[in-house]
Specification:
The complex is a heterodimer of chains A (about 210) and B (about 400).
Chain A: E1 14-17, H1 21-33, E2 39-42, H2 48-55, E3 59-63, H3 69-78, E4 86-88, H4 95-104, E5 106-111, H5 116-164, H6 168-182, H7 186-206
Parallel strand pairs in A: 1-2, 1-3
Antiparallel strand pairs in A: 3-5, 4-5
Chain B: E1 4-10, H1 17-24, H2 27-30, E2 33-39, H3 43-51, E3 57-61, H4 64-69, E4 79-84, E5 87-88, E6 90-95, H5 96-104, H6 113-126, E7 135-138, H7 144-155, E8 165-168, H8 174-179, E9 185-189, H9 194-198, E10 202-207, H10 208-211, E11 218-223, H11 224-229, H12 231-249, H13 254-261, H14 271-279, E12 281-282, E13 290-291, E14 296-297, H15 308-320, H16 328-337, H17 340-347, E15 369-371, E16 378-380, H18 396-409
Parallel strand pairs in B: 1-2, 1-3, 7-8, 7-9
Antiparallel strand pairs in B: 3-11, 4-11, 5-14, 6-9, 6-10, 12-13, 15-16
The chains are: A alpha/beta (about 210), B alpha/beta (about 400).
Chain lengths: ~210, ~400
């Protein structure tokens, strides 16, 4: 059965190993959309050896940052149960897609002899979904940072309003003017002010 | 003018200290280079990123560049080694259950490899008929850990291929795996041996410094193409690393060094536990600290010199355990991987002591030996193997043959 994998169009067995459940779900989703219905997702690598024997994957997709990659690679190399060496990526010569994969943070292991045309779309899908996930995470991070900035500016305004007896608008204008003069972001100037105020303590503020 | 940027990958292990120090203590800046450090989570990731050019250089396991150049790993790029990050630093830790078993066969908390290896052998033989083998972990197949563990076991009459199971576990997970009973022992760099000792979950049976005194461990791997196009930058980096290594060796800096490495961006382990590797004063598990001479040397004894005999010894172990077939071409690949010539030419302007030879007979020095070198003094060794064997890199074939014979009589 296993020996004919490369010859026929038997559906591919795909194993996704990702400790990040959201990203794993996004990948699984993409694979199913592409018509792959034999997808197994594993979040926790403990007991992975047995799972690999059970699943007998043709393709393993794993995030590049997984600290267990050294263990997995050595297992693939030694594995007598899978009975075939599993090589990374489709084709060593295909350096552009290797680069794209590493940059996206995804790594893949493919059974030897599997036809390139069958694996490439899987890799491309994984790369684009990993990138989409990173973009999403980055946007979330930015949104979080934006919120933090707004909070800091509010605090800085409050400090100026109490210590310099300014109105809210005047306090903001002062922050903005300083930021422009120093060629810095308003949030950075606000952060410096808040830090300074904390260092000076309540006396420094209420003076 | 902006300085030269060099991107370097590293693993959060204590022996990345020289690289971290070069960046954080200003040694790189002093040589006009901007060293950007990237903390990685696996050696596979370091290999991938150096292969596609994300990194120019990286902290690597000594045998790793050889394995890549010999075509043993996926996605390898040609990598050279012009600098070593130190000598020693590893230990072999066993679970409390295994240690108790070993005690019944004469083990002692003295870290003595011959005595404790014999006890382990007796224990393994007494377990014959049990349904599973003892399972030991190392950090990577192509690592000093794997080869020194196997050398020790085989030298004590334990066949690492059939009488024990060797698996791969990332260093930070070793102590947990041992505590959970998933493994019975492991070979890893500090502080991951002491990590099991301080929690009362394991005993250090022996150390790398006792298995092979002053033996190679991590190295600076450099993408060969990058080295070719950036000879000046590489030389500047080697000078920065040399100065950083000297700073790391100086005990007056150890408090600052361990505080630096304790930061989450680097090793992220408490200073106290790091100190054990730096002072060589280790608690094997019975609460009594024992001093191990030359436990870990980041600088002394020409610790940064990339001896070709070190590369060739790793190669003989790759042959011994079936990673690669011995051929003249493969031996040449191994020999050409380590580049003492680059080390020497980069450091020459500093007027420091440099070994005159590219290789030495490993195991031949029984005492610390001053060696002649232009201008300054240099001490090498001792560099003995625990079983008293000698590795002469000029008699490679004979060593490989002898090993093969020893392997078949061990069982």
């Amino acid at each position: 059965m296993l020996e004919v994998v490369a010859m026929t169009a038997r559906p591919l067995n795909i194993l996704v190993i990702d400790e990040n459940r959201i990203r794993a779900a996004i990948i699984e989703d993409g694979l199913r959309e592409a018509g792959h219905d034999q997808v197994t997702v594993v979040h926790d690598v403990s007991g992975i050896a047995r799972r690999i024997i059970e699943v007998g994957p043709d393709v393993i997709v794993i995030d590049l940052e997984n600290p267990n990659r050294d263990m997995l690679e050595s297992m693939f190399q030694l594995s007598r149960s899978v009975n075939r060496p599993i090589a990374m990526f489709v084709d060593r010569a295909d350096s552009a897609s290797i680069e794209a994969a590493v940059e996206a943070g995804v790594s893949a292991y493919v059974v030897d002899g599997l036809r390139k045309e069958r694996v490439k779309p899987i890799m491309q899908m994984a790369i684009s979904r990993f990138n989409a996930f990173s973009r999403m995470a980055r946007e979330l991070e930015e949104a979080r940072g934006e919120l933090e900035n707004r909070k800091i500016i509010e605090r800085a305004k409050g400090i100026l309003m109490t210590s310099r007896k300014l109105s809210e608008d005047e306090a903001y204008a002062l922050l903005r003017k300083n930021a422009m003069n120093q060629n810095r972001k308003i949030a950075d100037v606000a952060q410096s002010l808040v830090t300074a105020a904390e260092l000076l303590g309540p006396e420094g503020l209420s003076r | 003018m902006s300085s030269i940027q060099i991107n370097a990958g590293f693993m959060p292990l204590f022996d990345s200290a020289v690289l971290v120090t070069a960046c954080e203590m200003g040694f790189a800046a002093g040589e006009g280079i901007e060293l950007n450090l990237f903390r990685e989570t696996s050696w596979a990731s370091i290999r991938d990123r150096i292969a596609i050019g994300h990194f120019d250089v990286a902290h690597m396991l000594g045998p790793m560049p050889l394995a890549g150049n010999l075509g043993l790993t996926p996605l390898a790029s040609e990598t050279i080694v012009p600098f070593a990050f130190g000598l020693g630093g590893n230990g072999v830790t066993v679970s409390n259950a295994v240690w108790e078993g070993m005690l019944r066969f004469g083990a002692q908390p003295t870290l003595d490899p011959a005595r404790n290896g014999l006890a382990l052998k007796e224990l393994i033989h007494s377990r014959r008929g049990e349904d599973r083998l003892l399972r030991f972990a190392v950090t990577h197949p192509h690592s000093g850990h794997n080869y020194e563990l196997r050398y020790w076991l085989a030298g004590c009459g334990i066949d690492p291929e059939s009488e024990i199971e060797i698996v791969i576990v990332p260093p930070p997970f070793m102590a947990d795996a041992l505590a959970a009973g998933r493994i019975d022992g492991y070979c890893v760099g500090e502080p991951w041996n002491s990590a099991s000792v301080v929690t009362g979950k394991g005993h250090i049976a022996t150390v790398k410094a006792a298995i092979w005194r002053n033996s190679p461990e991590k190295v600076l791997g450099v993408r060969r193409m990058w080295a070719q196009d950036n000879a000046e930058a590489l030389a500047a980096l080697l000078r920065a690393l040399h100065k950083a290594a000297r700073w790391c060796q100086d005990h007056r800096n150890h408090a600052e060094l361990t505080a630096l490495m304790a930061r989450p961006a680097f090793l992220g382990q408490p200073a106290e536990i790091q100190m054990r590797a730096l002072t060589g004063s280790l608690d094997p598990g019975d609460g009594v600290f024992r001093y191990v001479e030359d436990f870990f040397l980041p600088f002394d004894k020409a610790a940064n010199f990339p001896w070709k005999s070190h590369a060739l010894w790793f190669y003989t172990q790759m042959v011994r355990w079936g990673d690669v077939a011995h051929s003249e071409a493969n031996a040449l690949t191994a020999r050409e991987c380590y580049r003492p010539d680059l080390y020497r030419s980069a450091l020459k302007p500093l007027g420091v002591a440099l070994p005159g030879a590219n290789a030495k007979v490993e195991g031949a020095l029984t005492a610390a030996t001053p060696v002649g070198s232009a201008g300054a003094s240099l001490t090498l060794g001792p560099d003995g193997f625990f079983d008293g064997r000698i590795f002469d890199p000029d008699a490679l074939d004979r060593y490989i043959e002898e090993q093969a014979r020893a392997g078949t009589t061990a069982t």
